[in-house]
């Protein structure tokens, strides 16, 4: 910040508000802090009694807050991100489509380690809808040194993934395999189907069919393979997912799996969730809570899978922090602490 003569301040950034008082008529702001002094402003400033003002000199390696915010957004934004016009030095980033928000936490923490940078986001790895506010950024001072922005841009450029992006949902066909002799015999009605239809619609997917093979592991395995042969992008298997001796679903999934990522998660509701890959496609075993609880591990994992992300056991381990649903009377997911 420098104190300079008004006549020498053209092109510099005003560091403070300048008030105008007209007795009996007006008292208010004539020039706002952050204003870039123009040639035509000089006479007005002199009329206000300002012969010297405090400014940032943009000719000495400083960048105005508005220009700085734009450069940071351009460096940080990945796919499917739109951003607002700059307002008072701040730009907002929003989702350009429905999908799953991905935040590169290493990069986020690195850029915010500079005390002149503010880049704030919501939590990642959650489902977002088009237009959702995801993040906002600005610099702290009214003008920032060029080297600060260069550090920001370098951190984003060297990152393996963008600081912020939205992975869109892929059009997906889902096969549902509902196990249980009590269902196939007609003793009780299936209640999983309607729930999964609704959840599929939330992410732009379709249920291509639902079958009821009973409890025989071989029949369950064959039902999974049949759906994959018909072009399913995912198979969801319901029922028989507990550790009871007569629950055969996990072993039936294992019988055809190329890889079992997890059977069991540190998420409640949803501890008995299973993820395997069969012929490169995700097959999920769904515990009973998915049928009746508002939100479960299903809502943390399946949307990510439907963007094409390949989840690992570590992804599920990380869900432990925030993995306890509060079962609120009015569910606000994903705008809550579940899964964060």
From TrEMBL:
Keywords linked to the UniProt accession: Magnesium, Metal-binding, Molybdenum, Molybdenum cofactor biosynthesis, Nucleotidyltransferase, Transferase
SMART domains the UniProt entry points to: MoCF_biosynth
Recorded catalytic activity of this chain's protein: adenylyl-molybdopterin + molybdate = Mo-molybdopterin + AMP + H(+)
A single GO molecular function term of this UniProt record: molybdopterin molybdotransferase activity
EC category name: transferase
Gene3D superfamilies recorded: MoaB/Mog-like domain (3.40.980.10)
Annotated MoaB/Mog domain residues: 175-307
Requisite cofactors: Mg(2+)
Keyword Metal-binding found: yes
Pathway: Cofactor biosynthesis; molybdopterin biosynthesis
EC number(s) stated in the UniProt entry for this protein: 2.10.1.1
A biological process from GO: Mo-molybdopterin cofactor biosynthetic process
GO cellular component, one term: cytosol
Family (UniProt): Belongs to the MoeA family.
Known role: Catalyzes the insertion of molybdate into adenylated molybdopterin with the concomitant release of AMP.
Matches recorded under PANTHER family: MOLYBDOPTERIN BIOSYNTHESIS PROTEIN, MOLYBDOPTERIN MOLYBDENUMTRANSFERASE
Name of protein: Molybdopterin molybdenumtransferase
């Amino acid at each position: 910040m420098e104190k300079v003569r008004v006549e020498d301040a053209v092109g510099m950034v005003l560091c403070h508000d300048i008030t105008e008082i007209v007795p009996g008529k007006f008292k208010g702001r004539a020039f706002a802090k952050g204003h870039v002094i123009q040639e035509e402003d000089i006479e007005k400033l002199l009329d206000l009694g300002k012969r010297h003002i405090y400014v940032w000199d943009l000719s000495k390696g400083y960048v105005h807050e508005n220009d700085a915010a734009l450069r940071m957004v351009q460096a940080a934004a990945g796919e499917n991100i739109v951003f607002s016009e700059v307002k008072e030095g701040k730009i907002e980033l929003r989702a350009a489509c429905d999908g799953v928000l991905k935040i590169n936490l290493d990069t986020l923490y690195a850029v915010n380690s500079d005390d002149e940078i503010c880049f704030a986001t919501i939590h990642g790895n959650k489902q977002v809808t088009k237009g959702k506010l995801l993040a906002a950024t600005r610099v702290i001072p009214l003008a920032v040194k060029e080297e600060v922005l260069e550090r920001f841009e370098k951190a984003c450029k060297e990152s393996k993934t963008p600081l912020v992006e939205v992975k869109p949902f892929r059009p997906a066909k889902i096969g549902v395999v509902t196990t249980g002799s009590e269902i196939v015999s007609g003793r009780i009605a299936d209640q999983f189907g309607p729930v999964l239809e609704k959840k599929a619609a939330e992410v732009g997917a379709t249920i291509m069919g639902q079958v009821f093979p009973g409890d025989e592991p071989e029949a369950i395995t064959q039902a999974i393979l049949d759906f994959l042969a018909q072009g399913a992008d995912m198979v969801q298997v319901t029922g028989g997912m507990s550790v009871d001796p007569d629950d055969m679903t996990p072993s039936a999934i294992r019988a055809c799996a190329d890889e079992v990522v997890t059977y069991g998660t540190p998420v409640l509701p949803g501890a008995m969730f299973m993820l395997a890959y069969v012929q490169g496609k995700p097959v999920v075993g769904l515990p009973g809570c998915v049928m009746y609880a508002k939100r479960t591990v299903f809502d943390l994992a399946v949307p990510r899978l439907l963007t094409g992300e390949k989840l690992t056991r570590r992804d599920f381990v990380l869900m432990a922090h925030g993995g306890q649903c509060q079962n609120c009377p009015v569910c606000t997911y994903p705008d809550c602490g579940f899964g964060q």
